[in-house]
Write a structure and sequence with these properties.
A hairpin with a 2-residue loop joins strand 2 and strand 3. The chain is built from 6 helices and 7 strands, in the order βαααββαβαβαββ. The protein is an alpha+beta fold and 185 residues long. It has a single domain, classed as 3-Layer(aba) Sandwich (Aminopeptidase).
């Protein structure tokens, strides 16, 4: 049975199990969008893990975990955009208006559970979590694959079709391979 829980102090251990020693991908620990490029690079690995844990201790909204029975199998990062420094400074994903939005910036699915429709389900759970925490508009920045089989390491922002299936609408296409999409309450 698939279930979802928000990331907090009680579920932190589950995220560590899911991410493993490498922090999901190359020491990221879901800090890519939360730090400047320079800060992120200098903190890869253990320091990013500590920084992310400190955000959890502050009880900030960070995302949702997916479970199969009690085993963590997926992660979706969702936070108010204003808390995502690199996203706020992005030329590619510059704000399209001044509305307060929450942003989905990462999907991480355990390799044994990929290509089973979990992405759409965890996106929906993340949207519900954000709405429960005061959001009214959710943005995402998924990839438009140029090939049928894309390595998972390049799919961490999610695929357009998963977001369409979750009810998102295409707003703009800032590059050949990326969309800005929205889900509004």
């Amino acid at each position: 049975m698939i279930g979802f829980k928000p990331l907090n102090l009680e579920t932190w251990q589950d995220l560590q199990i899911l991410f493993g020693d490498n922090g999901a991908c190359g020491g990221c620990w879901c800090m890519t969008w939360r730090l400047t490029h320079k800060e992120y690079e200098s903190n890869k690995g253990a320091n990013n893990k500590i920084k992310f844990y400190n955000l959890i201790k502050e009880r900030l909204p960070l995302g949702v975990l997916a479970y199969y029975n009690d085993f963590p199998i997926g992660w979706c990062s969702i936070s108010p955009r204003k808390s995502l420094i690199r996203l706020e400074n992005s030329k590619l994903f510059k704000r399209i208006d001044d509305k307060p939005v929450w942003s989905i910036t990462c999907l991480f699915i355990h390799k044994n559970y990929r290509k089973k429709g979990l992405s759409t389900r965890i996106i929906r759970a993340a949207v519900n979590y954000a709405f429960e925490n005061g959001a009214s508009i959710i943005e995402a920045y998924p990839i438009i694959p140029k090939v049928n089989e894309m390595p998972a390491v390049f799919a961490w922002v999610g695929f357009v079709n998963s977001f369409i299936q979750a009810g998102f609408k295409k707003i703009t296409q800032p590059s050949e391979t990326r969309f800005i999409m929205r889900f509004e309450k």
